[in-house]
Amino acid sequence: QVRMVESGGGLVQAGGSLRLSCAASGRTFSSYAMGWFRQAPGKERDFVAAINWSGRSTYYADSVKGRFAISRDNAKNTVYLQMNSLKPEDTAVYYCAADPSGLGYVVEEKYDYWGQGTQVTVSS
């Protein structure tokens, strides 16, 4: 089993940046793909970004391409989401998730383990 704890959320002005971190427990972290999802108030949870087990393949939602970057450090059991040029519509609770296949998917059903989420609020 993998447990994840997200951090790095907060309040930022539009155009600003934040870096989210997701620290995972367990020796199997390096074999898992990791994803970031977000849920805005009153909306469904949406895919944001994913990275495969090695870090060589990354995937992004169209809404964040060119602004967000996902990366991982397997030595630290941590995955990151660098968020630049933030917009008010990026406001949401951000969740990291682990996919045991190692491949990385855009659908949340492929992810078995989830963190508790971290709030990101972008003011206009």
What would you say this structure looks like, in words?
By secondary structure, the protein is mainly beta. 0% of the residues lie in helices and 48% in strands. It contains no helices and eleven strands. It has strands at residues 4-7, 10-13, 18-24, 33-39, 45-51, 58-60, 68-73, 78-83, 92-99, 113-114, 118-123. Strands 2, 4, 5, 6, 9, 10 and 11 form a seven-stranded mixed sheet that branches. The protein has a four-stranded antiparallel sheet with strand order 1-3-8-7, with no helix packed on it. It is globular, with a radius of gyration of 13 Å. The termini are far apart. The mean pLDDT is 96.
Task: Give the tags.
124 residues, mainly beta, seven-stranded mixed beta sheet, four-stranded antiparallel beta sheet, 48% strand, globular
Residue ranges: pLDDT <50 for 5 or more in a row?
none
Largest sheet: 7 strands, mixed
Q: What general form does the structure show?
A: globular
Strand fraction band?
A: over 45%
* Helical content (DSSP H or I, runs of 4+): under 10%
H/E series: EEEEEEEEEEE
Mean pLDDT comes to 96
> If you compute it from the alpha carbons, what radius of gyration comes out, rounded to the nearest whole angstrom?
13 Å
The termini sit apart by 40 Å
Structural class, judged by helices and strands?
Answer: mainly beta
> Count of helical segments?
0
Task: Count the beta strands.
Answer: 11
